[in-house]
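hey so i finally got around to running the thing on that chain from the lab meeting. sorry it took forever, my laptop kept dying and i had to restart like 3 times. anyway pasting the input first so we r on the same page abt which one it is
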Amino acid sequence: MSSEIPATSTQDGPAATKGAWTGWRDFSVVAREFEDAAQSQCSFYLQPVDGQPLPTFKPGQFLTVAPNVMPRTSDGPAATRAITRCYSLSDRPGLGHYRVTIKRVPAPPDHPEFAPGLSSNHFHDQVRVGDTLRVKAPAGHFFIDSDPNLPAVLIAGGIGITPMMSMLRWCVAQQPQRVVHLFYGLRNSGEHAFKQLLEEIAASHPALRLNVVYSRPGESDLQGRDYQHKGHVDVELLRRTLPHGRHQFYVCGPPAMMQALVPALAEWGVPVRDIHYEAFGPASVKLPGGAAEAAAPIATGVEVRFQRSGRTLTWDGRDASLLDFAERHGVEVESGCRSGGCGSCETRLLEGKVQYEHAPDHEVAAGCCLLCVGRPSSPLVLEA
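ok and heres what got predicted. didnt touch it at all, straight out
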């Protein structure tokens, strides 16, 4: 999975942090550190250039950043431009800095503007201590419930460990007696992020029940030392491992994991109100009783006018979203999470109607729409 965050969450709550700034704020990179043996996951520590205090955030929320990158095409490097991406905060609030941990996503040699991995490769290869980044305030509806009496089950797949680290470290600092079960699924020790830190927390905090799951252990990986279970994190493993009683489930991982595990939790009998999730990539997670809009026919052969760009195009239904449609036709639109979580692609809807397969996590302003999860249900005029 990419560590870029499309937020798809059932957690209710404010989208922005109390006391947060509006718009962009300059942050300096004060440290960077690899978190796994393969050096595929790197943490970046950020402090505000203006030296003013940082607002707190809810453990599990994300940052929106706008690095200046230089895409590569078959004709060579393209012009440098800012792109927008969202990354989970991977440390607890109140430390005087923000931390994001970004996994490098392999990218082809021809690395065009909208290719997967454009941002992660830029961070790994170009962003150094002393560099300045533009950052929006922490936001997102995926965060841990603060009730200390509710045992938490944190389930991470791959780089989905990042919001879980924020939740876990907050619990250890603020609610050390709260029972937390962490299930962390990955291939082997080479990509085991925060390995030593997790082992130290588990050794010193008996309320943490650590369950690391390797799907392809390496020759030197030892069960019982490096990992507790072989295979994948699934409901059968949870059945065998969790004690009886109510738990709050928090799930974050790649699309295949989310599409299988989240509905399986509901089928197991976990109340939907106790299932909270955030998916990386274009995962489509459906829960019984979830907040999805009623299905409606997808319009095809309708005109979509991008007013500012002066383009009128015909929607033929081949694109997953209006954002994909715009990018395929070279219409420049700001974007971030790409699944309705951050609001970066919010655009004024001047005429027509846009439908969503699932209600966006972001609270869409009146008279606007989100291009990343929207499709036309009539001819449209968009401000972009």
